[in-house]
Amino acid sequence: MKNYIFATISLAAALLFTACDQEAPMDTDLYPQTAYIVGAHYRIIDEYLDLSYEQDTVNISVAISGNRSLGSDVKVTLEECPEAIDTYNQREVSARARQYRPLSTDIYQIPSYDVTVRKGEVFHTLPVYVNPSSLHCDSLYMLAFKIAATSMYEATKIDTVALLRMNLVNKYSGQYYMNGVIKNVDNPNDSLVYVMPRQLTATKDGRTVRMFHYNNSTFASE
Predict the structure, then answer these.
(1) Dihedral of CA 28/32/34/36: which sign?
(2) Edge-to-edge, what's the strand order for the sheet holding 108-109?
(3) What 3-state class would DSSP assign to 105?
(4) What is the C-alpha separation between 113 and 183, in angstroms, rounded?
(5) What's the pLDDT at 186?
(6) Does the N-terminal or the C-terminal CB of the chain have fewer CB atoms within 10 Å?
(7) How many CB atoms lie within 10 A of CB 165?
(8) Tens-digit pLDDT profile for residues 163-188
(9) What is the pLDDT of residue 6?
């Protein structure tokens, strides 16, 4: 019995010393750390511009992948790539459909293309300030960005371009459900009750929306 107890204690001690010699998995990099634009793997990132604002803001988030917190600041530099919008139109949009267009450079401002992810953080954002009043509700707008340089780590090799799709909104826009009755003018007793979803689109300001109903359009305001 004494020999059995001694052997058990010796084995436990050996396992303890072995465990102490090994690093905890979360203390090492389990996979390479890379810089990337959050949402770029979806290709399209939906942003919303409120037409009731003189200036609205959209944000681009840049992150560093990895299982450990950053030990130092990482600076990531972005750049615009409007050619990516043309590529998207050619590959994804019918030639007879409305094409996406880049925002005119005179209606948005980017104070800096540098984003610094601070020590201990996972991501940080770059603001884009847009003056939406000149945008037309029947046009499609995008901005495209990619990573140009990093102070540490490499930029991701896949999903490198983020396309920001601009959606025009105000506090009345969005999806509504319409309850109605369709009547036969020749036979009023012949009617159909329906519930239909309708998308109200912001048009020119903070109070006006538009709804298409069959071949007609109806305007509503506050």
Answers:
(1) negative
(2) 108-109, 123-130, 56-64, 34-37, 154-155
(3) helix
(4) 58
(5) 84
(6) N
(7) 16
(8) 999 999 999 999 888 788 888 888 87
(9) 43
Q: Is the pLDDT of residue 11 over 90?
A: no
Q: 35 with 62: CB under 8 angstroms?
A: yes
How many CB atoms neighbour CB 79 within 10 A?
Answer: 11
- Given a cut of 50, is residue 5 above it in pLDDT? no
Chain centre to alpha carbon of residue 71: 27
**Residue 32: φ, ψ to 5°:** -60, 140
Cα dist from 88 to 63, 104, 144, 167, 194, whole Å: 24, 18, 10, 17, 38
Cβ atoms of 23 and 144 within 8 Å: the answer is: no
Scan for tokens 């071949």, then name that residue.
Answer: 215
Tens-place pLDDT, residues 36-80 = 999 998 889 999 999 999 999 999 999 998 767 788 999 999 999
Contacts of 215 (CB under 8 A, 6+ apart): none
Is the CB of residue 211 less than 8 Å from the CB of residue 198? yes
Closest CA to 140 of 97, 204, 172, 200: 97
Bigger pLDDT: 30 vs 203: 203
Q: In the 8-state DSSP scheme, what is residue 31?
A: S
d(CA 103, CA 202): 18
Query: Could you tell me which of 16, 26, 117, 112 has the C-alpha nearest to residue 64?
Result: 117
